[in-house]
Amino acid sequence: MYTTNLPVIPFPHINAKSEYSRNNISSFPTVLVIDSDLNTVGYLNNFFENRNFNVLKANSYSEAMDKCKESKIDLVISEFLLGDHSCLEITMLIRKLIPDIRVIIMSANEDLLSEKDALNFNADYFLTKPLQSDRLCGIIENCLNHSESFS
Questions:
Q1: Bridge partner residues of 23 (DSSP)
Q2: Per mean pLDDT, which of 55-59, 130-134, 145-149 is the most reliable?
Q3: Between the CA of residue 78 and those of 16, 63, 106, 137, 151, what are the distances in Å?
Q4: Omega of the bond prior to 130 within 30 degrees of 0, cis?
Q5: DSSP H or E stretch at residue 28
Q6: pLDDT tens for residues 60-101?
Q7: Are strands 81-82 and 85-86 parallel, antiparallel or unpaired?
Q8: Is 127 contained in some domain?
């Protein structure tokens, strides 16, 4: 199992005094992590679970599309290249299924894609790997605060 020493940085909508409880897991936001790199998936799984998110994982285009059709998803974080599909294609197709979804694209190769390119394809944010937990927290907070799908 992948482990990491992530600082626990709570989000305002999920804290000890909030209306959310582990007994009502469906009230927690759901994130879909799309990446074929098991280290990144493990890191993000721990990151989100430590912050009371429901985490769905997909390591292929078809698996990601199935998860989007089957589940209520509030946020997608995806590797830019996934097999023979780019995240830009996946983002456009996911937004057809869930128009108000928030999408974060990540890549280890800064030269492959710029933040401007990602935003031109309807992604909300672009992150470079290795991921920085404080920046990721801020971006997720922005995504959920501006999301119509999370209530």
A1: none
A2: 55-59
A3: 29, 12, 6, 16, 23
A4: yes
A5: none
A6: 888 999 999 999 999 999 988 777 777 778 888 888 989 889
A7: antiparallel
A8: yes
Q: What is the CATH number of the domain that holds 130?
A: 3.40.50.2300
Identify whether 47 is part of a domain: yes
| Residue 74, pLDDT score | 93
**Alpha helix (H) residue ranges in the chain:** 38-49, 61-70, 87-97, 115-120, 133-145
Q: Pairing mode, if any, of strands 30-34 and 81-82?
A: unpaired
Say what the pLDDT of residue 48 is: 95
pTM higher than the cut 0.85: no
Task: Please give the helix or strand (H or E) that residue 102 lies within, else none.
Answer: strand 102-107
Confirm whether 43 is domain-assigned: yes
